[in-house]
Amino acid sequence: MHSWKKTGSLLAATALIASFIVGGCGSSQEEAQAGKTPVKAMQVLQQDTSVGYNYPGHLQGKEEVQVHARVSGSVLEKYFDGGDYVYAGQPLYKLDSRQYETAVISAQAELSKAESNLRNAQEELGRYETLWKDRAVSEQTLTNKRADVEGYRATVAAERAAVQKAKENLDDTVVYAPMSGRVAVDDVAVGTYATAGSTNLVTIGTMDPIDIQFSVSETEYLNLLAEAMEAGVDINTDNQPLPKVKITLSNGREYPFEGKIITADRALSTNTGSLTIEATIANPNGILLPGMFVQVHLVGVKADNAILVPQRAVQQLLDEAFVLVVGEDGKSISKNVKVGEKVGSYYIIEKGLSPTDVVIVEGLTTLRAGQDIDVTMVTPEEMGFSTTESTEITDKS
Asked: Is the model more confident about 49 or about 236?
């Protein structure tokens, strides 16, 4: 009996020591875990991505014409109001025509006088030709009469041209619209003296479609060109598929129609190093006005196998960008990256990351490279990340 009691006491002591040992190990593990910085991380995305290139731009009339009078004179009548839509050939202004009416009458009188002189010269030539047959006049005299007739004939032609010109000047006292479009409100008032070829009577511009002008940098131009070449597009033909264009108005509303690029400048600007691009977009309701400022979005540009990381994971320091990734040893590692275009909640990373990297997306406030981290893996859906529209939650770490 005494031996049994002694054995039981020994077992109880052993159990007590074991409990202390186990308890001591758990405490050490908790302390070690407590020394790690909790973070959330996710695998970088690699996928074909539609890239949204955005540029500031402004609208301008596809065709704008300043209307000038071909003759000088005071404006007597105006047949439209500023802002009206006018059609090609529609009368716009009537200038004082009195001096031009007088000029027509004077030119016609000079023409009649020249025609009379020509008839007299022709009759006289006929008589001299009869006398020449009888050798009653010299050959030189006959030659002179024939020259007189040709001179009068030339004078008649000149006077006829003068009459025609005078009539054209008279007709030009009515100024017609050279094209269809909307007139500006900068039209001159009745009574204004218009100088031929210099006074801008009014400006007419087409409204549908309307042009968009914006500029891209040399780098962006080369990137777009490289993407076209990688897609197998023959850049030496006019049939290459250019990106479509959408615009956002100054009130933040997206315009419902889609435009297309129509031309690019032949050279980069020497001042800004940018290339001017022109696009055109439908304006059937006349909502868009020349001079408006818009945000231009290129649609249909794709980046193949692009590496994407959430914008919140990218940190900027001076001219450098870097992200913190999860290292194999459980520590944070800083990697310098080259950041490309924004895609929804993400940046395209052009250089610095591989598809196997796991980037830290939350807990970055006090985190530095080389720290021990306690990683919780998350998905883009859990974080609210999107490649189309940013709905990411606020980092409260």
From this structure: 49
